[in-house]
Amino acid sequence: MIPLDIRLYTWLDIEDVLLRSRKQEKWPEGLVWARSYWNGLTLGVRPGTHSSVKTWLQGAYEPRLQVDSQYGDIYIILESIQDNQRALPVFFQETEEEPPIPRLIRSLDRSTIIWRQGENLQLPSALQSDLPCVAALYPTESNVGQTTHALALAKALTVANKRVLLIDGNLDPSINQLRQSRLSFPSICLADFIALIHEDFSLGSKEVIDLVAERLKDSLVNGIYFLPSFRGNNKLIDVKLKRLTSKNYGNPFFLTDALALLGKSLGVDVVLVDLKPGFSDLALLLISDPRVHRAVLSIASRKAISKIRHLFSFISPSVFRSEALPPPALVLTKSLYADHDQHMLNDAASVFFQKRKDTLAIMTPSIGKLENLPDDQWKSLYRISNSELPVLMHPFLSWLYSHE
């Protein structure tokens, strides 16, 4: 039977069931290897063991395994919306080879999407007027209050009668700590969304968007939907964004399109992504997309400003060139040396002003008592709501709607 904490959205979840069963040493003797991908699950089995492996498979994926009574084809039923059933076909392949160790190997290749100065990029057109704006908050380093500021901005938007989809963009399994929701196991997460669009995504494909939106609609609280990065602490993101970019017709900006369409389906005004520091695939895809409202968050220090300069030295000037697309923003949090903060703000902002003269640059106070927020995002939001931070984030509202 499928473990209660696993939801079968994609082939990655099919794989999770196999991995867990293998770890518990429950694989049948006839099963040599398994290969799961978006177009099917293939099982390598010993000659003469097809029937016993099929019986085991029925038990492992109960009640989602379905056998075509006429042709004998086997399918695993995936999470679906009503009247639009999704399924992954199962294939058997006889083999005499010895089991590899481990039996199931996931791809851990890494890649980046970023362009050096001087490259001629074909920039995308602005998002359609009926789509919500997509914003990303990018911290230069850890512990600068990026999630605190993201929650404060989300709160400021709801006070202005805007709805927000807030996304935890930390897809690094080595440091990720799932922010708790009201449910022990969130019904869907960002890793699921990425895996789903890896299977099938184009501007004409509504199935993925509708499925994710349906799973999120009951999570609306005080004008905010929350999409966590993972559904469990052991969930790895194994679909690399470079592979998705290639699959989506070489479009490096496909993720913004998908997020905007999801936001439209939910009826939100802003899709806000809380990124992690570093050159992750997700961060680079978003901060390199000129249609995204990109805000860099840093503490007021010389070291942090140096990191900002280094970051922007890697991004092509053409990403900032079009005045029809949104300018970047800079948020500095005050340090212990308050007398130097305004000078540092001007110094850091000069990096942006060289790219765009209409850059937004603001200073927020040291987050102080907000540093140790509860894991529950709604309790955190309550504490932030009673602070001055949402008010200080108000300049972002006009910034978000300056290029509609």
What distinguishing features does this structure have?
alpha/beta; 2 domains; 5-stranded mixed β-sheet; 12 strands
In percent, how helical is the residue content? Answer: 25-40%
Major sheet: order of its strands? Answer: 8-7-9-6-10-11-12
Unreliable segments of 5+ consecutive residues: 101-119, 174-183, 236-240
How many strands, what sense, and barrel or not for the largest sheet? Answer: 7 strands, parallel
The CATH architecture of the largest domain is: 3-Layer(aba) Sandwich
Q: What is the number of E strands?
A: 12
Question: What is the level 1 CATH name of the largest domain?
Answer: Alpha Beta
Domain count: the total is: 2
The fraction of residues in strands falls at 15-25%
- Work out the radius of gyration: 23 Å
Characterization of this structure:
There is one protein chain. This protein is α/β, with parallel strands linked by helices. The chain has helices at 11-23, 50-60, 146-159, 190-199, 207-216, 241-247, 254-266, 281-287, 302-313, 318-321, 341-353, 377-385, 389-392, 395-400, and strands at residues 31-37, 40-45, 65-67, 74-81, 84-94, 133-139, 164-169, 224-227, 270-275, 293-299, 329-333, 360-364. The strands form 2 sheets. Strands 8-7-9-6-10-11-12 form a 7-stranded parallel beta sheet, with helices on both faces. Strands 1-2-5-4-3 form a 5-stranded mixed beta sheet. Helix 5 packs across helix 7. Residues 101-119, 174-183 and 236-240 have low confidence and may be disordered.
